[in-house]
Sequence to fold (304 residues):
Amino acid sequence: MEPCSCDTFVALPPATVGNRVIFGKNSDRLFDEVQEVIYCPAAVHNDLGKRFKCTYIEVDQVPETYAVVLSRPAWLWGAEMGANEHGVCIGNEAVWGREDISKEEALLGMDLVRLGLERADTAEKALDVIVDLLEKYGQGGNCAEGEEFSYYNSFLIADRNEAWILETSGKYWAAERVQGVRNISNQLSITTKIAREHPDVRNYAKQRGWWDGKEEFDFTAAYSYIDTAAMMTSPSRYCQGYKLLDKHRGNITFETMMEILRDRPSGINMKGEFLTTASMVSVLPQDPSLPCIHLFTATPHPER
Fold:
């Protein structure tokens, strides 16, 4: 099966209309998998000595979790994408690279999406939650029901004021703060524009012979097989998605984001064994007096 994933997008002012952050994602999964939209209310947890189970493993509880709305494959605990009561939105992507994928059961990337939303009231705090959990519990396990399908993850995390890209390879990671427009797909894409990183991400790459320690450190070049010099001229969904965003820079609305998610020639709107099974668009006004709005399809075929 050809490795496929999803596409996640964000646009920040001044690329958008009306001082709004616009977030969007297509969830591409096996064609016969059911994806559901669920709401989980905020909760206070008094028994902090009790662990709770995610998809495969148990993790420690925290004193408080925020209300979340999630779009998720019905068989697992986590989520492909979602938002919380503070306007934080997260979507994840499957990524592959030089590091062998762990099939040992740990946290799925989709578990990390939900945990980040439940535990953080800003985008950067969600990034902190995810990398702390990644360090403590690791990532791994089968990501599909009835199929062998494992991967590492990248994340696009947004709130009313900013957005972050977080990309991982095993326990190693790099993060980029977004300016203007940005998208992620099923490939690593952070190159030298690194705002935060795992403390050993460079040493590990050097030990493995992926970086000589002399050239400027390029996370994607070190941890994947992608030629970063040619990355924006390839026919990949990542490249095509960026072009669609950039084409509308300065005039992006939620309708623009919906049109991008419907786009079939780019492959963003996917058909076949892997299918766009659900879509999400969020409008996050920078004015805190205005509500955030989240739109979900909970069905395939976003062109409908």
Remarks:
- The mean pLDDT is 95.
- The first helix runs from residue 109 to 119.
